[in-house]
Amino acid sequence: MAAITQAAIRELASIRGRSAPITSCYLDVDGRRLARSKDLEHEVEIVLKGARAKADGDASVLTDLQQIEQYVRGALDRSRVRGVAIFACSAERLWQVVELPVPVRTRVMVNDVPAVGQLEAVLRDHEPIGVLMADRQRARMFVFELGALVERSELFEQVPRETDVRGLRDRGGDHPQVLEEHTQQHLRTAAQVAFAVWNQHPFTHLAIAAPDHLARQLEADLHPYLRERLCGRLSVPVTANHGEVLAAAQKIEAEVERTREARVVERLREAVAAGRKGVGGLADTVEALADHRVSTLVVSQGFSAPGWRCPGCGALAAMGPRCKRCGSAMREVEDLVEDAVEEALAQSCQVEICVGNADLDVMGRAGALLRY
Ligand SMILES: [Zn+2]
Predict the structure, then answer these.
(1) C-alpha span between 45 and 336 (Å, rounded)
(2) Dihedral of the CA atoms 97, 99, 104, 108 (nearest 10)?
(3) DSSP-derived secondary structure letter, 174
């Protein structure tokens, strides 16, 4: 799997299709949604058919689409790949596939630049997460990025003499005040290891997996930079395998993401209530997009609604058939939300797709934070 980084995205974004347009294709190949490869092939066929119609007979684009079809029928390992981004331009010999462990929204775009917005969103929604695990003798530190382990460090302290431990347990055991000196030292070392790993491979969030009394001490020992990254505790034993740690980390990652989305929706709600720098509802949102005023587009996952697009000025609108900006007759679009997301990405706005946020649903399942 090609590692996807900000630098890689910037490099992609700098490519221009000089002799022919660039085909950008995102595919949701999530096996949990489309179990049979037949279903996936069928879905891709429909998307590509739509793209062929838009290709306008361009030979390079048609070749791109054919290659994409072959790729989907070929060796796609859906046990670890849930989303695919393909950037192709046959005329320029460009063929780049980014396989992602997370799903993306299926869409094909043909333009003179690669559509990298969704890749950026994937990176933003899956910030690197560190997991620091510890018990009395062991400490393990992992960094996961996009579902993959990218950094690890293991620490194993000499087991103290049996009598010391037993003597302490006899006196009342594991209370933090009576953590043995060697355990305290071990936790301090573990905290230092976490900081060293962070220096090596920065992560945005840190989760602790340790028995409560050790976790409290460990959190207190962390460098302040790391303490402010704490996002919760995992209940996995220090002996857990990578898969178990990753599963727990992804659960907490999803919680972190939902919390972040909730903050964006809260900002939107306040802006709409105050009547400045925010609009709620799809109709006003696409208006603001047409005015290039949107900084962040916010929509509920799964929301879709029909609407209009003006071939004259390119504006999207909830109501048709005449464009109130330029007077042209508009064309109906099947999914205005989809087109709004695409337009927002093209305008380099942030796009937040919120999962199960009731406050956003109340506002009409779509809204936008505005630049002015
Ligand atoms: Zn118009």
Answers:
(1) 22
(2) 20
(3) T
